[in-house]
Amino acid sequence: MADTAPPKKAAPAPDAATQAGEAIGAQLKTAGAQVRASAERMTATGTELGMRLLDQAEENTRQAFVAMRAAAQARDMSEVMRIQGDYLRDQANRAMSQASEIGEMVAGLGRDTLAQLTPKD
Known about the structure:
By secondary structure, the protein is an all-alpha fold. The chain has helices at 16-72, 77-117. Helix 1 (16-72) runs antiparallel to helix 2. The longest helix has 57 residues, at 16-72. It is rod-shaped. The two termini are 62 Å apart. The mean pLDDT is 85.
């Protein structure tokens, strides 16, 4: 029996549109990987940030109880006022330090995200 199937044609050479589509696909794949890496970093930093906020809240609560105990054991009202003033001053300093720490963590996250998303050509 003779082969009656038509002869196979050679695959056409990729045209400019196909090549451009492949180049765009490669760029999208790279961008997707960068976004994924950035999202993973944001998640890790978010977890770290949440834990740091909990640590700060715990420290603030601990210091409040220390001041309350001291005030409860005070001998007179002037000592209570001194304890309260010391606590408020220390708490204000602690709050500024904590805000600075959290601000630096957030700024670092922003810098990392921009670095990951900025082309390194």
